[in-house]
Amino acid sequence: MAATHTLKAKHRRSALRTLAFLSPWLIGFAVFFAYPMISTVYFSFMHYDGFRPPTWSGTKNWTYVFEHYPFFWPALRNTLWLVVIMVTLRVLFGLGIGMLITKIKTGTGVFRTLFYLPYLAPPVAATMAFAFLLNPGTGPVNSILEKAGIPAPGWFNDPDWSKPALTLMFLWGVGDLMVIFMAALLDVPKEQYEAAELDGASAWQRFRFVTLPTISPIIMFAVVTGVIAAMQCYTQPLVAGKVASGVIQGAGTMFEPGYPEHSTLTLPQLVYNLGFQRFDYGSACVVALVLFALSMAFTALLMRRRGGLIQAGD
Amino acid sequence: MTQVLERPAELARESSPAARTARRKALLEWIAVHSLGVAAALFFTLPFVFVLLTSLMSDSQALSRDLVPHTWEWANYRKVFDTPGFLTWWRNTLIYAGLGTVLTVVSSVPVAYALAKFRFRGRNLALMLVISMMMLPPQVVVIPMYLFWAKQLDLSGTLWPMIVPLAFGDAFSIFLLRQFLVTIPNEYLDAAKVDGCGDLRTLLRVVLPMARPGIAAVALFQFFAAWNDYFGPQIYASENPDAWTLSYALESFKGAHHTDWNLTMAATVLVMAPVILVFFFAQKAFVEGVTLTGVKG
């Protein structure tokens, strides 16, 4: 009897201890995640401009966003473009650079540092730099291309080239993937390569049948986290559009997002446009929920019970 | 590196035709790999070089197509510092990044420790929720959060809406630290318990000293997240230039100096430089942080 009593007390103590250690996050979860998520759903059915009290509007915000708001479908298309094309190129390029760095035998440290540095460049600074490098008039890239006799594109000023320009900038910052792939490639057992070589496997066959199966979880990880990052892409297209259009006059300027011709518009930008430029908080919440649904779908892929890439258990 | 130098010598000693072909093949591969390496290095470094060169050009030359400055205008950097507000933006950035980093580490370490080492019901669920929060775009919850800070607490135009949430654990930091703490063997914790340490003492005396590299990685990532943040200042501080941070102000700097690419690039260099300087002092922590979140599930 006494034994069960102490056991119960012990249980209670360990539960309290767990709660105490988790408390910062429990509060943070409630205040900065649960409460705003519920409010976002609530506001998506309300008409609210921030001045007059919110009024019930049923599904009006939803039909407005999907049927009448001119930016929603272009933004969704652009986001999907980035998700498919930019992520594919980034993973392939990151893997290529990762393989290259494992083959480099002289000055490895220097090369690795140089390849990694762009990843650290602050997004706004990197975008300012690329807006300058790729500006069609006096930018160094087009100067060099023209000297070489190659027709120079309009980059951030041409709707057909603005997304490739963004992609080029994201390829430049591929250092994080390089590090992840490098670690994975160095983990492939050497004996397997030697065995494959003895069996007469060509370089391609060694890659296809030894390297690829071993690193495929890391490739999947890079794809899924890349997709989530592409969905969140906000600062770079916004700043690139502003700088290229030349309408930045500081804060509070009404800027039609997505210059040129909606080509750099992404879903997160719509939340800002609807909420903080048009003061239509209800419709902004609709877009926020679309964004939420999409990113949670990809996160679920990352954490599937089996074949998931982040395991919760140990 | 020694391996590479030794192997051809060894092969040369046997100078059979087969060995010679193998040696030539190795040499050709070395040349191919390193030429590719140099080409890649140019792709990654030339943008920095062009930005630096332009930041040192005169006003008129920055509008031309020249790649190298005729006269080196170091005064451009002084002009940037003389821009009204520039020093305030530095101060704000350091407050946001510095205070935010301290709060993040202090609030995230106990949570990560509990998720890594305590056994309790709902632990996996808690970890899944942390990961979900980490993947959540900030735009999803920004409308209610803005209304909360601006309309209810009247704190828009200050840094507080960006700093205060960091006192309640940051999802990415919790996840990264948890990944690190899982690798600490339980034997150390058991030994501390046998010696009569309570949970808090074990955390402070045993776990923290061993977790120093993980904490360094979290601190660096958090510092740069604040340094790089554009969306937070845009939402909460845009109306008040005295509360801008460097990353946010950089774009309006271009607005104020409409055609002056040289000054804009000098300002860009000044925003990039601290990040790169810190990297050279803390390279290991960075790389470890990236691999921890990426490779070890």
What does this protein structure show overall?
The complex is a heterodimer of chains A (314) and B (297). Chain A has 314 residues and is an all-alpha fold. In chain A, 70% of the residues lie in helices and 1% in strands. Chain A contains 13 helices and two strands. Chain A has a two-stranded antiparallel ribbon with strand order 1-2. Chain B is built from 16 helices and no strands. Chains A and B meet through α1, α3, α4, α5 and α8 of A and α2, α5, α6, α7 and α12 of B.
Mean pLDDT of chain A: 90
Number of strands of chain A: 2
Globular, elongated, flat, extended or rod-shaped: what is the shape of chain A?
Answer: flat
State the secondary-structure class of chain A: mainly alpha
Q: H/E series of chain A, N to C?
A: HEEHHHHHHHHHHHH
Residue runs with pLDDT of under 50 for 5 or more positions of chain B:
1-6
How many whole angstroms does the radius of gyration of chain A measure? 25 Å
Give the neighbour order of strands across the main sheet of chain A. Answer: 1-2
Protein structure class of chain B:
mainly alpha
How many β-strand stretches of chain B? 0
Largest sheet of chain A: 2 strands, antiparallel
The largest interface is:
A-B, 102 and 102 residues
For this structure, the quaternary state is heterodimer
Major sheet size, sense and barrel closure of chain B: none
Helix content of chain B: over 70%
Subcellular location (chain B): Cell membrane
Organism (chain B): Streptomyces asoensis
Protein name (chain B): Sugar ABC transporter permease
Membrane topology (chain B): Multi-pass membrane protein
